[in-house]
Records
---
Amino acid sequence: ETGSYLLPERAESRGTIRYAGMATVLYHLIRENAVLSIDEIESSLHFDLLAYFIKLFLANGDKQSQLLFTTHDINLLNEDFIRRDAVWFTEKNTAGETVLERLSGMGLHKNLSPYNAYRQGKLGAKPFIGKMFID
């Protein structure tokens, strides 16, 4: 039978619950001067929802709010709404210390794709995978 039905929260997907929570956070970021940091912002979210969330913040955040997030989703490097001076890579040095480097300081020509350069290993910050077969 068609109609509207209430679905208990425990039956919702993790992504739906996460996005509902992020919508609340977004509301506060837009309405107040706030700094919010989110670790692994892409967790449980479809890429389109992640991109939409960031675009909503950028388009509507006319106050002094800032959104600081970490992600493993390299698809954001393909998006033109992400400025190069806002992207930082982290990589461990030989002493095991985490080093930050800004994408805009890496000398990548403005016509070259950061996504492709990263995939080709030209920007560093890639995990060491090792060989495919175990001895």
---
Amino acid sequence: MQFVQPGGFNSVSPLDAGGDDTQDSDANPAMSLMTAQVTLASGDNNTTLDAGFYNTAALGDFVWHDQNANGVQDGTEPGISGVTVNLKNAAGTVIDSTTTNGL
């Protein structure tokens, strides 16, 4: 079976995660989202071949010098480079980090 990835989505990884084959993703991105081959006889029903897809999320897009301290990014206020921005999970652990470039 081959799944077609919907626009704006990413395929999940790893495959076969968890302990329930009816609720994991079997579509292998390295194999054009193909699953393992199965043979079904007349009347058979295999509900274990699934595909998981997700949308990425984005937070913010700019760190700026609020020159007039009004809390609004005005068109003439410049970006600030070299600011480290950490993404943390609910436990407070940093799971990703980036540094601004001022643009």
